[in-house]
Amino acid sequence: MIKSLPRAGLCLTFEAKLENWADGMDYCAVAVPAKITQALGTFGPVLVSAQLNQSEPFQVSLFPGGGGHHFIRIKLKVRTATKTKVGDRVRLQITVLDRADVNYPQDLLKALRAKGVMKDFKSLTPGRQHFILRRIEEAVLTQTREKRIQAAVAAAQVAREKRAHSSRRLQSASKGVKKTKKKV
User: Fold this and answer.
1) What are phi and psi of 104, to 5 degrees?
2) pLDDT in tens, 3-50
3) pTM of the entire structure?
4) Does residue 184 sit in helix, strand or coil?
5) Crossing angle of helices 126-138/142-175, nearest 10°?
6) For residue 31, with 0-12 CB atoms within 10 Å meaning exposed, 13-18 middle and 19 or more buried, which class applies?
7) Sign of CA dihedral 5, 95, 35, 60
8) Cα 42 from Cα 61, distance rounded (Å)
């Protein structure tokens, strides 16, 4: 029986083959066995901390691929550190993370506060926040990190504008409603 959300802290280990997923591109992933998906209790995306062949832990989302399976992307940085190549059998340990538990880098906090959009960034869904934060943390170059922080600020500003627009629309709709007394 598939439930809706996996329990944060759930730790699972499995072995699988590292596969190249895009001809001519360096995009590698591992198919997560069906029994692991069953243990997770969901067919949706799952945020995890992962270790490949006892690597340093890295944060990634398991993504659904249909047929009751998830897949996990293995980036070049991890493959290089573990001397892993396409076709190798790898051992993965995954620990489910709580999507509501978000750690914000100090440079992002500074930029959000400077534009007054901290509350707006925190109004984004936890999954969206994690995606943005992961992209910031994965940046190798300082310039790339700064661009991604600016993109995060822009996402918060868009969230603010959407909320303001919705609020204005609700206010104008409520002004147009007339209250009438019922005659008895």
Assistant:
1) -100, 130
2) 557 788 999 999 999 999 877 777 899 999 999 999 998 888 888 999
3) 0.66
4) coil
5) 160
6) middle
7) positive
8) 13
Task: In whole angstroms, give the CA distance from residue 160 to residue 155.
Answer: 9
Alpha helices in 46-87 (DSSP H): 76-81
- Give the C-alpha separation, 180 to 41, whole Å: 51
φ, ψ for residue 44, nearest 5 deg: -85, 180
Q: Which of 163, 110, 155 is nearest to 130 (CA)?
A: 155
Rounded to 5°, the CA angle 77-65-45 comes to: 70
Distance, in Å, from the CA atom of 109 to the CA atom of 88, rounded to the nearest integer, reads 40
Q: Give the model confidence (pLDDT) of 49-105 as tens digits.
A: 999 998 999 888 898 887 778 999 998 889 999 999 999 999 999 999 887 777 789
The encoded tokens of residue 52 equal 């490949």
Q: Which residue has the tokens 């072995």?
A: 15
